[in-house]
Structure formats: structure tokens, C-alpha cells
Specification:
The structure is a homotetramer. With about 350 residues, chain A is α/β, with parallel strands linked by helices. Chain A has eleven helices and 14 strands. In chain A, strand 5 and strand 6 form a beta hairpin. The radius of gyration of chain A is 23 Å and the shape is elongated. Chain A starts with a strand and ends in a 5-residue tail after the last helix. At the A-B interface, helix 2, helix 6 and helix 7 of A face helix 2, helix 6 and helix 7 of B.
């Protein structure tokens, strides 16, 4: 941490800051500059609360220097983490695609879509049994019945599946049935849920919050890892911006930065970023090109009858095309280290 | 809902949209324009999923028209809702101020601050026992011990208190102790928690999510009301923008719009929006001037030693000044109907 | 500037950074920390381009410390600048209100509105002769004819006026007629125009760009001051955010921060921030309460017939009410130093 | 345009809106819904100002329906526009890359970089002679001398070049020397400059404003086309968001949407979006994968000595790698129609 003093701050006020730091066990080192003095705070373990210095006489600004995350950091573990789900690997240079409907609606719907995406080359199935919906009047998912359908689909197709968990109450149930547990955008900083996920035995897909800074997202993963579960897959799904031509704005530089800062794999969900079908294939191609470790895509055989997010679901034949494009692009960029 | 067809959409594709709507029980009415045809979807109950029409041949755009909320809407209930907490009223034209530290740290800390804010005129006390923190390594609150301290403070000062609930596990406990239950920014769309809040017997302060649209915020309140709890106080606390000179950007036009759209009271938390002490009093004054139904302010007698959010906490003597300013401004704007 | 080295950066790479800095005449001082070394760059005049260090071996991050502005800075000039326009003062603790239509449409329109706002207590008139419009097909202003009307209005009412300049071609003309020259949001970083404004003999109102950081806005003012014109009034008018319930989001903490960082007066335009009439009076009250040095408000006697921005223009009787509220609030907050 | 009336709006107020519309020559058609009446405004030429209806009794909301642009619209011209610069084509399915330094610094610097990028396969050179800089104290470009250097480079390498124009004063000069004239982000709504560009005989690269909505960007292009110059290349370069891990957030769905709405070619500048070198190649790959019609990339042989934007400039050997990756990806996605 660097404390920048006002121009003309007195020697006494500088000394006062130094003492405040040392009282807390830090080392404080004043650095005289041209116009003003700065004070470096050294040897701190964990983050130092800026508030402890902001109020002191003569202090102009407090600038944090070191990043507070540990277990998720590439400085902590240099080689890529590979997360395995059955035979599917995330983070080993392959390009696993998770595909399926937004919500499980019926056995027939699920199995129809699962067979279609499997045939096109998807590695995993997805489908919501518990659905977070903006309105209490919208379809909230089939619950346990949905999980049973997903299990049946797995048995029939051999595809492992990912499904979202919304609360601790239903966590045991979701953990029992699913192969990968998804924590959604709106729960990225539901810290109680993150702690529970940290005690789960299954891998976690952690979606980025709609307005999460990179550091907040990685700290959310840190919550999970700190409780003992190191099988975390990050998922970029678009951020909230002023833009209105897509539901959210896909932040692809986040993929690049996550891979620089962390050893965890990061996948992309172009469907939720786009919000409209036309953008999904182009954004999927871009996500693979930028270096994503996988994709999560919404597919529905009758999107105009889907109970949620129909507008962004691909038709099965579009998904086939996506798979072809994505595989070709990955064959080029997959072995490149940017 | 209005479905806008592409220029030159065929008669057949228009007919196809009409049929798709009618198959779902809606009334569809084509409206020929100069350049293109639009189709109004009428008599729908609840929201209509745009996805059901986006994929159809010839459709250019789907524009939602009616707002989906009901119970929170001023169209549903025209007069202001007044939420009572003991003798304190929100929404009746008074200006109740909730003040206290970010986190309860000790009996002594809490009682010292409570006495100071009571003396200055605060109507309620606040303090966190369960703290949502970005980092798992930061102070997470005293938990039940914190609630007991808050109860002691209430007994000693007579001030009712608000405190945050983070999950369903601790909900019963928080509900038992507190006078008002706060749902924080990061949990605004934790729908399971909202539903539990809807079954609580205590009033709820629902903070706006950091990137929540007005409609999403009101729909979150709708979740609570729909489960049976109509005692909801909304709280604007700043939104995430590109700005870096404050932690968040206080969105005061949201206060005006909430009061137009809804009968629920809306208060403002200038401390979290600001993130730095210097901005808190000016933003508090602005919040009262814009028509807020109350304020929530962080105060600490030793902010440089606070265990969280010290940088934004007012000193007690600053809070006194805030109270004086705020009361004077409220005496002017409080009886005005803009 | 602070250069943060990666964990485990070699002694050689550190020495390399030090040499790179010293080759450019700076002083570089390595600061060993717990985990990593940082290097302070001292005695630099002007800003140091981060790019010069980002590419060097072992460098993790480059953090700018000092702000690059000079003439606009309160560190450069401590007392408030007072900008005079005839008898009207900005920055001396008074609360001058500039009011008028978005665009001058006719002599009759202008004079009608000017008389109404003067009667209500406005200190200055406003009206656009050259109009920046999103669409080339929208009304572009009356041009020179508009300036003549504004001059007539000034003669008849005694009100000085502000009007926008859009380019260097028309600058002489606008400067000749107007009392204050406005540079609009979309031109905040039109550096050629800023330089011309710096050679003007009239005060400049510099509106904040729609997505301008505080520092960019102050640097735009620095362009004007650096060319010799120190009569700059800053104007906050809302920023672009994800919000849809107002045209822009009024950033009132910017007022507080500008006054801390700079000696220049700062006023607020609530009309453009709101975009809808209902929000204008509340936001005007909030702007005065937060410590603004004045307001700029759109008024039209027949807003439903206005040739631009009718939706946000107040009726004259609403403006009267605004004046009353604003004056009362200013009597409370005007003499407070937050 | 659709005017939504409040619940319970009287027959009289509905009639009043209809009359107001008809007085202006529009056709107004009331559409009764379940809860409320909406009124469609038809047969309007050009956009209808919402303000004309917002203030009327009983009006709840005014929703624009048709897009206001004409000449840029794909509804106006269905086939892709191909813009030619010498032998280089934008919009015909090829993948031209424009590369070079941010600013021209010297003949030697320019020629060194030009030769390197030509060798790697760049189709055009870029370099700034007039530089828009946030600070008046930063390097402002070599001006006319810079243009002469660019012309020399063209002669020596055969590469046509693009360079930015900042104002009307220097427009003739820039037009005389350059092959393509660039209008920068900060000038996207400098309408006077756009009109001058509309009278130019050279193609224009129109960069997207940092917070421009798609519609505003296309309307800026409309300004140029409306004055007679139909050779417009749009350039996405990142938008301002809350994100801090990149300078701006590259909005790749804008590429998809521009191509849907308009016949104009759209290229991407990953360098300015990234702001840091590490992200440039991945974002360039993503831009090609999403369907861009070309790229604009910053390259410098000694970025640590560059006079501006060194941090985001690629080394020549990195640019070579970019060219290889980009060409391979384009060979896959270039012939796909998403």
C-alpha cells in the first residue's frame, strides 16, 4: 500500500502516519518525491484497510498495491489447474462445450436436446432445475423433478451435466445429482453459498457477477478454495454496460487477464451475454479465439416455446454449425500461447 | 408487447406471428405503419417472453410495453405505504435517520456510537453482525454475539436497530433479534433469501443491487411482497459506473422514479455510495433534497481503527452536523410535492 | 509513479528498470516489500508514460501517483476562482441560475421565456443557436439569426446569456455576441476547440463529457487555461450508465470532488441529466444541496411544441417553484463548508 | 412511436393525444389492451420528438419504434458496401490489416515500422500526425511534418496510410496527404467535423465514441453520408465500462449488430481497447472470429521509447505472429455467414 501525502504535508503529519502503521505491525517507509512525500507500507500480511489511513492529517490518497487473493493466484500456483468431470477436462488445452436448454421443461424436451447436442459434439449437458428469475411470476424450474430428468438424460446419453444451485437448502440435492454445480451471476457474492460450495465434493462453475471487477470475481473463487474445494471453473458471461444492442457486453479481455492472474480454467457463456440468437455463434467463435477453456451454450429444439430465454437459444442445426466453427478455430488458437 | 416486423415482411409472415400469439391465448392486432407493420399483443396476463417471437420469420424487434410488477406498483396501490418500526415511520413525510457503525466490533464500541448518534437525533441504530466481505480473509462479523450486543444497545438507548441477514440459515436468529432486517446489495437477487424475507414478520430494508435496473429492484421487492410481507423499505446506495472518484455513483433520480412507480418508501445510504468520508454529508443533503424518505449513515467514533469501511464512516461530530443540515433541508423539501 | 515488480523478479531486472528510469532523468528508488519489490519514480516533471516501463522484464504493474493537472489544481491556487459575467458571479457563494429553452426558435419564443425566467429570478438566459444533434435530419438551430435574437433578448431583459459554440468556424461569431460561451458534452475533448476557447476573451462553460473521468474533465479545462483563459466554469450534466429511467445519471459526488481538486466553480445541469421533466426539480434541489455553484435549467412555455428537448423542459410555473425551493435550500447549505 | 397511456386514462385524454398527433400530420391509432390503452403513431417521416407527447395528460410512457437512420441502413441498401483504398478493399470478405505506430515520431521510426509491418503482411500503414491527447503537456504530434513523413513512407513501401484529422482547419492538409482519413473516438459527435468529412473525396474511418450507443454511431456515419461521402468504414475500439483490467471493453457484439443494421464495413482496433500489449493478439483473433472486416493495430519497434501509447504497441515480431493467427482464423470464419 502506498500513502500519498498532500503537497506541503508537515514532517509531524508524516511521522504520525508512520507511527499509525507501525502500531499495527507494518513497516512504513517514507519516499520523498519532487512535490510531495509518499509512504510505502510494507510487510503486511493480507490486505490493509485504506480507511485506517484516509482520515489522518495530511493524507491525500491511499493506493493499494498488492492483490489480496492467494489460493487462486498464479503466483501461488504457476501451472494451469485442470478440472476433470468424468472424462471431460477443463484447462488442459481441450475445448469442451457444455450445451443444453436454459431450463429443464420435461423428460422429452431434455432428452431430445441432449441427443442433438451430443451428436453435434457437446461434451456436457446443461439445464436448470432451480431457476433464478427476475419476476416471481415467471417459471421457477421443476426442482427435484428436473434433477431426476437430468440424471435420466445422463444415463441415456452418457453426458455429464451442469446445473445451477440457488441456495444452501437445495445444495445437498443438487450436489447429489449433478456432475458440476453452477453458481449463477446473481449469487457470485452470496458468500454463504460460496462457503458451502467450498465444502462440496463436486467441481463448481462460478459465473462472473454482472458488475463484478476481476478482483471480486477471483476473491469469490478464493472463498470456495479457502474452504477446501479447489475444483473451480470460472465463467465469463457478459457485464452490464450502457449498451442496448445486446443483453450484456461480453468482456473477452477478462479471459486473457484471468489466465494471467490465476491458474484456474475460464470458460465463456456467449448465450447470456448476447441475449439474442444471432450473436451467439459469432461470440462463441470470438471466445474460442481469445483463448477460452470451454463454452457454455443454450440450445433448444423449439426456442419459440421455451419456458425461459428462448430468444437466445440456438436451434440444434445452428449448434452443429457452432461446433464445426469452434473446433476449427480451436485447432488454430488452441496450441498458441499468446 | 409490440412486435415490429421488418420492412417488406410478407403477409404470410405477419399472419404467422398473429397465429403464434393467438395459440398462446393472446390477442394480436396488426398495426400498419408507413414503412412497416407492427403487431400489438394484447390481453396478456403476466409478462410475455420475447423469445417466443424473436425467432419467427420477418420479425425485426420485440418491444415490451407493460411493466411486469404488480404488488409494488403505484397503479396497484395509489397511496404511500408507511412502514412502522416502533415509533419510527418511513414513508409518512418524516425524515428518520438510521446511523451506526458498519460492523459491531464490541459492546463498548456499539454503545459509544449508539449514544452519540442518539444524542445527535438518529431515530434508529445500525450495525453488522454478519458481514458480507469481498475477501474471505477480512473480518466476517461477530455473528450471534453481535446480535446480542445490538439488543443490549437497544435496551440501553431505546433505539430500534437494523442489521443485515446474509442467508436463510441465520434468518431466524436475525429476525428474532432485529427490528428491521436488511438485505444487502449483493443479495438483492438472491431469490431464495427474498422468499424467506417474504415470510418474515419484521420490516425489510432492500438495498439496490450494484447494477440493478429499477425494474429488477422493484421485482425483488415484489418477491418479498408476493410471499406476504408488505413491509418493504427500498434503499438506494449507489450504482457501479466507470467513475473512480467515488466508490459508487449515487443515482438520485432513482428515488424520484421509485416514488412515481411504487408506493413503497425509499431511503438513501450515502456512505456506501461515497466510499470516502468527505462526500457523505453533501450526498446526504442531496438525498434529502431529492425527496428521500430517510437515510442510513455510517458513523464510527474511531474510524481509523474500524474493522471495516472506516474510510467512509463519519466522526460523531460530523454526524451531528449532518443531522442539523438534513433537518433544515427536510423542513423545506419535506412538504413539497415535486 | 510506482512500478510493482513480479514476485521473484531478479535483481538484474530490477536494476534494468532503475536504469531505464534514470536514462530519462528520473530518480528511481527500489522499495523492498514482503513479497515483492516496488520501485518509486521520483522528481518527474509532467506525467510519465506507463508504457515506457510496462514492457520491461519482471514488471507486473505500473501505478500513477501524482495527478497531471496544474493550473486547474487547488494545489496550484488555493482560493476559489470567481468568474464574473456582468453582475453575475460564479464561485463566490451565490447561486446564479441560468435558464432558457434548449434552442432559440423565434424572437417571440425567446423573449417570452426570457421574461418568465427573469421574473422568477434567473440570473442569466440560455438558448442554443448552433445545435449539436444526434441526427442530421433534426433541427440544427437558427445560427447567426439565433445569436441576434439572443442579443435582442439581452437588450430587452438585461439578462446576459450563454450559448453553445460547436466549431472554430463559428467561434468568432459566438464570442462576439455571447456573454458566456458553452462547450458541450460531445466537444469536451475536441482539443482544437478547447485551444481556441483558451484564446477567447469571454468566460467558458465546460460541460463534462458523457463518459469523462474527473481527471479528463479537469485536463480539458487545463487546455483552456493553458492557452490563457482562466475564466472556466465547469458543468456536471450526467454521465452515461446502464440506467434507463433517466437519460443520464447525475453524478453529484463529482461536484464535491471538483471543489476539492480544483479552484474553479462547478455548476449543474439537471435537465440534460434527467431527460424527463418530472425529475428536474428534485435533481435541481439535490444539486444545490450538494454544493453546486449554480444551475443551468431548460424552460419552455410550450414544451410540447419545442423543436428540441421538449420532454425535459420545465413549464414557467414549474421554474418559479424550482427557484423558490432552490433559494431556500441554498440559504441553508450555501454558507456551510462540508 | 408508441404512446402508452396510464391505467384508467380517460377517454378525453386519449382523444387529446390523438388530436395532438394529427395536428402534426401523423396518423394516430389507439390500441386497447387488457389494462391500458396504447396509441400507435404512424406515417411519420423522420423521428418524432417524444417530448411532444410526454407532457400530455394521461401519458405514461413514449416508446420509439423505428430507427431514424436512412442512408447507412441495410434496409436502404441491402448489399455490403465495399470501400476501396488503392488495391485494398474493406467489406468484400478480405481481411486488410492497418498497422503502425500511434504517433509518427521521425522519418526513421516511421520507415522502420512500416517496413516491418509490410513484411508481415499489413495492407495499410497508420500513424498520427495530429494527436488528440488528454493533457496539453503531452506530445501533440509532428503536424504537417508528420504527414510528409507518412507520404515518404508510402512512396518507399507502397503502403497507403490512414491518419487522424482533429479539426476543420487541418482537414484540407490531411485530405491532401492521406489515403484514408480517420475521425477519432473523441470527435465521433463533432458534427461540424463530420459534415466536412462528408464533403471529402477520401474514405473515412469513423471510430466509435467511447460511450456511443450503436444508433448514435450510425447516425454519425449518416452525417457523413448525408453530405455526399458514402465511403465510410466504421471502427469499434472499446467502450467505457466499470472494468479496470483493460483500458476499455471491446464490444464485439457491436460488430455483429452493425453488419445487421448497416451495409457499411466495420473494422476493430484491439490496441486501444486493450491498452496493454498482452491483450492485443487475443483480442485481434477474437475480432476476426466475430466477423470484422479488418483490423487496426499499433506496432512500434521500441515501444518503451514511444512518445504515446507505448504500453499497447506490439513489437514487430508479435505483429508477425498476429498476422499468422489472424489469417488462419479468417480462412475459417471469413466465408461463413453466421
Amino acid at each position: 500500500m502506498l500513502i500519498v501525502m498532500k503537497k506541503g504535508a508537515t514532517e509531524e503529519s508524516i511521522q504520525n502516519v508512520v507511527e499509525a502503521a507501525e502500531k499495527r505491525g507494518y513497516t512504513a517507509r517514507p519516499i520523498p518525491g519532487g512535490d510531495r512525500v509518499s509512504i510505502g507500507i510494507l510487510y503486511n500480511k493480507g490486505s490493509v484497510d485504506a480507511g485506517r489511513f484516509m482520515g489522518l492529517e495530511g493524507v491525500k490518497e491511499v493506493i493499494p498495491v498488492t492483490k489480496p487473493y492467494k489460493l487462486v493466484s498464479r503466483e501461488f500456483k504457476n501451472e494451469n489447474s485442470v478440472i476433470k468431470v468424468g472424462n471431460v477436462c477443463f484447462g488442459n488445452g481441450s475445448m469442451p462445450i457444455i450445451a443444453g436448454p436454459c431450463a429443464v421443461e420435461s423428460q422429452e424436451q431434455a432428452i431430445t436436446i441432449a441427443k442433438a447436442v451430443k451428436k453435434a459434439g457437446a461434451a456436457m449437458f446443461r439445464g436448470g432445475a432451480f431457476k433464478p428469475r427476475t419476476s416471481p411470476y415467471d417459471f421457477q424450474g421443476l426442482g427435484k423433478k428436473g434433477l431426476e430428468i437430468l440424471a435420466n438424460v445422463r444415463e441415456e446419453t452418457g453426458l455429464p451435466f451442469a446445473t445451477e444451485v440457488m441456495d444452501i437448502e437445495s445444495f445437498d440435492l443438487v450436489e447429489e445429482y449433478s456432475d458440476v454445480i453452477q453458481i449463477g451471476t446473481r449469487n457470485m457474492q452470496n458468500f454463504s453459498l460460496l462457503k458451502r460450495a467450498g465444502r462440496a465434493k463436486k467441481p463448481i462453475i462460478l459465473k462472473r457477477g454482472m458488475s463484478a471487477m476481476l478482483q471480486e470475481w477471483l476473491m469469490a473463487a478464493e472463498y470456495i478454495m479457502e474452504e477446501g474445494n479447489s475444483q473451480v471453473i470460472l465463467c465469463e458471461r457478459g457485464i452490464r454496460t450502457f449498451v442496448r444492442h445486446s443483453r450484456n457486453t461480453l468482456d473477452l479481455s477478462a479471459v486473457t487477464e484471468v489466465k494471467k492472474e490465476s491458474h484456474l480454467p475460464v470458460i465463456v457463456d456467449p448465450s447470456h451475454a448476447a441475449g439474442v440468437r444471432d450473436q451467439v455463434i459469432p461470440l462463441a467463435c470470438a471466445s474460442v479465439a481469445v483463448g477460452s477453456d470451454g463454452l457454455m451454450v443454450e440450445v433448444h429444439h423449439k426456442p419459440e416455446e421455451a419456458m425461459s430465454d428462448g430468444a437466445q437459444s440456438l436451434y440444434p442445426e445452428q449448434f452443429e454449425k457452432l461446433m464445426q466453427m469452434v473446433n476449427k478455430i480451436h485447432s488454430i488458437t488452441g496450441c498458441a500461447s499468446f
